[in-house]
Design brief:
Elements lengths: L1 E8 L7 H20 L3 E6 L5 E7 L3 H9 L7 E8 L12
Antiparallel strand pairs: 1-3, 1-4, 2-3
Bound molecules: [(2S)-5-oxo-2,5-dihydrofuran-2-yl]acetic acid.
Length: 96
């Protein structure tokens, strides 16, 4: 199942810089793990914002939920989740 997830990161002004750096490093490691597994299929930076648009490929809504709430930066994120399905004109067999 494919989902588009729009994530906006809002780390408050004055938040401890070392703690923020640790959270960002942990987020990057988790992202790379999920990317290597094929679960976090795509990511784009939203130009001019600390935000991304991502595509997730998961087995269920609850798997996506567990992944998202487990992200190290989750407490500082707002997210919008949109379910996707295959476009009839797509040439990509792995769109499902
Ligand atoms: O940078 C972001 O948009 C937040 C998050 C998503 C992947 C990652 O490495 O950090």
């Amino acid at each position: 199942m494919l989902f588009m997830v729009e994530m906006q990161v809002n780390i408050p002004l004055g938040f401890d810089a070392d703690e923020a750096a640790q959270l960002k490093a942990a987020e990057k490691a988790r992202f790379q793990e999920l990317q290597a597994a094929g679960t976090w299929r795509h990511i784009w930076r939203v130009a001019g914002q600390y935000a991304n648009v991502s595509i997730f490929d998961v087995e269920s809504n609850s798997q996506l939920h567990d992944i998202l709430i487990g992200l190290p930066l989750y407490p500082f994120m707002t997210m919008k989740v949109t379910a996707l399905c295959r476009h009839p004109s797509s040439l990509h067999d792995d769109d499902r």
